[in-house]
């Protein structure tokens, strides 16, 4: 029995540390096309103190550590590239504080978005947070580590723009706090202290986020999805622009997919609105359809596909079922909204070359400031050829994103390299220095954002 | 290609022009009605083609059985005056394309129950009322092979129906079935009204769900416990294609001991659910749809309806939630019948 395993057991107890193959197996897999990569140990701390001890141990022994949230990225970002210890953070899931009047909540970062939704629904029904378009098991910390966005992206931006404060365990095992909480003033704002910004979007390579103060938003009593459809992809940016002019939608998503046939070569814009009364809802419908989009309806090039439907999550994951075997992975990119037509056309071409029914989606971030555009590729987990096709399609899409001057969102290591190859040298040098300063032994999720 | 059996002489001799005079959505006097329908008979265009909301009702209003609605829809296509914007037409046409393999065809002895494109509602056809029927199109992956296509009347696209319907009929016939009960009366209307009107041969006998339910309830009469509710019926557009079956609603109500809510929008004056009007390109369609839905539901409330029963899943999808928000329980009529014989609704 190794000394590291024994040390981990000493920190968290035998039930929460393992080096057994049958348990490591689970942690060797990602839901996407990545090949399995095995950790040597897995450990699940309950407290920040336990986590600090684990990180100190790893730093002392120079063993790689990989922080793991819900394991939902599909891009293999929490697979251990160099073995070592996978730290499963899902037990660190306490809700520490909800401040209703100031609309924020402080949570441990291993908490799932599903648990937060459920808790707010039960205890604070007039508040909501921005849920990512991922299964409810996705964690807050994991989502922030990849700059995720959610269903309030249109009015409020990235989920990482909705942070009021952070607590982080550094690679040395020390704790650092950022935001107003750093000066003992509570967790109500990230500003106006000097910008540090070293942990969001870093895939856990600079530290492990342990506590987060998240902004909460008004949760209205009625919520509905309305669908508007156009055939020409060139219309989509303007449709989104017109709707975003109102500033009324909670979520704004354009989708197109080869399957089911009703969506093939058509573009559906999902407009989520909410209100506290039927009058408020009708006012919003009126401005959306009878004013902003009426030019499309009158000229017969756009139409209302449905109104007042119940909210449903983005259907992208259903595309995993378009082939037998239930696999899918996607490339996400942050692009200007005006890139939608080209993203769609080029994505459909890539899918066609790899015999995969195309599925694309663009979620508006901010008032059309940008869009998270995703290209999904389905594959059969039991058929290596289809996995290869999907992987090749993903790589081609990463290259496409670079070609059209987008930025790859939560890139896999292949995509990270593409991004770093063309990154501003000054920024790259600074990333390298930051990494060296914070993680001199290179133990934090090695392989990710690794500046050579 | 199939041609509509339409007799212009019947319109020429018609002294009521009820098809257009009675229209709930266009305000037309008899003289104008006569002029416009005769224009259509002569192959000319008419404002009717642009203003028609495709509610099917003129099929019922016509005293001569002369299919004015099918004529209007056919002319909408001929003059490229489709009621819906192009992307909705394209989307609608593509909805009916089967995409998950071929159906498994097994011989069915006895009477079949055709679920059409509502396989997901199979839980609605359980219990004693349906125990002797063999379900056809119970697999949602394959259901578009059983799609009656009549929906395309709302799209001004008889060409799509005429192009696809033969294959659908062949699929149903391949089960070697002689009698088919149709869960949705749009399917019933397709095989008993539309197909004969266009000379399309149908090699099986169609039974309306409500007629079937009525007869089955008669068999189970001893088990019926009167429900005592006041009930509104949301009559679907396709019911206009089989007005002779509409009286079964009242007969079923009598049998299961419910009172029909005394409404303005009932029977021939029934109000469309609005689903198809919502997206039409005519200015103000969305608001008009909201208005008629409100009128319809207010009418149910005023009449004291406790339950609103549906036949059409599209009506249920459109009005189910709004009626429930007004304290009226939405139910399929088949579920109400199940309650009456002591079973649970799905």
Description of the molecule:
The complex is a heterodimer of chains A (452) and B (346). By secondary structure, chain A is α+β, with helices and mostly antiparallel strands. Chain A folds into four domains: 3-88, Uridine Diphospho-n-acetylenolpyruvylglucosamine Reductase, domain 2 (2-Layer Sandwich), CATH 3.30.43; 95-218, Uridine Diphospho-n-acetylenolpyruvylglucosamine Reductase, domain 3, CATH 3.30.465; 222-309, Alpha-Beta Plaits (2-Layer Sandwich); 315-420, Alpha-Beta Plaits, CATH 3.30.70. In chain A, 31% of the residues lie in helices and 25% in strands. Chain A has helices at 3-12, 21-27, 48-61, 113-123, 140-145, 153-156, 236-246, 278-292, 294-298, 340-353, 384-403, 413-421, 425-438; strands at 17-18, 41-43, 65-68, 85-88, 95-99, 104-108, 127-128, 163-169, 175-179, 208-215, 217-218, 222-230, 251-257, 267-275, 302-309, 326-335, 359-365, 370-380, 407-409. In chain A, the strands form four sheets. Chain A has an eight-stranded antiparallel β-sheet. Chain A has a five-stranded antiparallel β-sheet with strand order 5-6-10-8-9. In chain A, strands 1-2-4-3 form a four-stranded mixed β-sheet, with helices on both faces. In chain A, a hairpin with a 4-residue loop joins strand 17 and strand 18. In chain A, helix 10 packs antiparallel against helix 11 (384-403) and helix 11 runs parallel beside helix 12. Chain A is globular. The model of chain A has no long low-confidence stretch (mean pLDDT 94). With 346 residues, chain B is of the alpha/beta class. Chain B is 42% helix and 9% strand. In chain B, strands 2-1-3-4 form a four-stranded parallel β-sheet. Chain B has a four-stranded parallel β-sheet with strand order 6-5-7-8, sandwiched between helices. In chain B, helix 10 runs parallel beside helix 11 (247-256). The longest helix of chain B is centred in the C-terminal third of the chain and has 18 residues, at 285-302. The A-B interface holds A 229-231, 259-266, 282, 285-286, 289-290, 294, 296-298, 300-308, 310 and B 82, 84-88, 90-92, 94-95, 97, 99, 278-279, 281, 283-287, 290, 321-322.
